[in-house]
Design a protein that fits this description.
The chain is of the alpha+beta class. It is built from 14 helices and 7 strands. The strands form 2 sheets. A 4-stranded antiparallel sheet has the order 2-3-1-4. It has a 3-stranded mixed sheet with strand order 5-7-6, sandwiched between helices. The longest helix is centred in the N-terminal third of the chain and has 23 residues.
């Protein structure tokens, strides 16, 4: 699969993954396709080497930000080579957007007590001049500022954590305002990313993605890039609900570059409305698993459910055993 990746992208990504240097691997245009393909490779290894039957085991998929592309591959809405090209192209444009900026940009996580999050988000919208509830790119930007100076809530990750994205100077002004005038004192953690993902600065990436999604598939001649319907639903980062049509999927996936990832809302929806009891995180790292586990109050297997993360081959057999042992409890609820 890694050889296929090199061929599709015409870039020696497998060599960069294996040998580095790290600075090259963490560059947005390399890191994003590498992360996405790692997730898909883990999934295909589960299927081919461990007999994991995706359609029998999984009812619904979702992925955080970049992870949404892998989730759409798993759900049968995107073919792997098409998803890979989309992610690489999106990442190239995002990297360019970040490099062309004349001032310091990035992302900052804010952590506070759960009961303070709602009022703090309101105070942020007030300060930024956003109108109404959401952070829709077309209706709530402070238009008098150039894109580089705008700030957006990039992610709502959990009941007590959000991420701001955009101008670091403007984010610091916002933090001063929150602390001095709005009565909030969140813990602020600067993320490693030098790119302000999900901010207005990424508009060119959204435009490119919209065009690419409207083009035919590069691998299935005469077919659309987006397959509709897929083999199972996929929850959108934008709406925190399953995609409802091919056109909506194209629209939301493109707009995701410049809008808020409603991760926490998605987990709450799946937990409370869809009554999801078992969650499997696939990909490098365990951040997704930890965010889910914290919200639904599970880690590993519990009676009739569980939250697992697969990022190492040694974990697979234990997790598949847990899945078998929790299968029978499903109808008890």
């Amino acid at each position: 699969m890694l050889e296929e990746v090199d061929e599709i992208l015409q870039v020696p990504l497998s060599k960069i993954i294996a040998e580095g240097p790290n600075s090259k691997l963490t560059a947005t245009e390399n890191a994003q396709p590498a992360i996405m393909m790692t997730s898909i490779i883990i999934l295909r290894v589960l299927e081919k080497e461990f007999g994991f039957k995706l359609e029998d085991r999984v009812d619904i998929t979702l992925g955080h930000s970049l992870g949404e592309f892998a989730a759409l591959v798993a759900a049968g809405n995107l073919r792997e080579p098409d998803a890979l090209r989309l992610v690489r192209r999106r990442a190239e444009v995002m990297a360019r957007c970040s490099k062309e900026v004349g001032e310091e940009v990035g992302m900052v996580a804010l952590v506070c007590e759960a009961q303070h999050l709602g009022p703090m988000v309101e105070a942020i919208h007030d300060f930024l001049g956003h109108h109404g509830e959401g952070s829709k790119a077309d209706s709530s930007m402070d238009y008098d500022l150039p894109a580089v100076q705008q700030v957006l809530i990039a992610n709502v990750n959990s009941k007590n954590q959000i991420v701001l994205s955009g101008s670091i100077k403007r984010i610091n002004e916002l933090l001063t305002h929150l602390r001095q005038f709005a009565g909030h004192d969140p813990r602020a953690v600067r993320l490693k990313s030098d790119s302000p993902f999900h901010s207005p600065l990424m508009k060119p990436a959204a435009v490119v993605l919209q065009k690419l999604l409207d083009q035919p598939s590069q691998v299935a001649k005469g077919e659309d890039t987006v397959i509709w319907p897929g083999i199972m639903p996929c929850v959108s980062n934008l709406s925190a609900r399953p995609f409802e049509s091919k056109q909506q999927l194209k629209d939301y996936l493109a707009r995701q570059c410049v809008e808020t990832v409603l991760w926490h809302d998605s987990i709450v929806y799946l937990h409370t409305e869809e009554k999801v009891k078992r969650w499997i995180g696939i990909g490098p790292g365990k951040v997704g698993r930890n965010l889910v586990g914290k919200e639904v109050g599970m880690k590993g297997a519990v009676k009739g459910g569980g939250v697992w993360g697969i990022s190492d081959p040694r974990e697979v057999e234990g997790i598949l055993h847990d899945l078998d042992s929790t299968e029978m409890f499903e109808e008890d609820e």
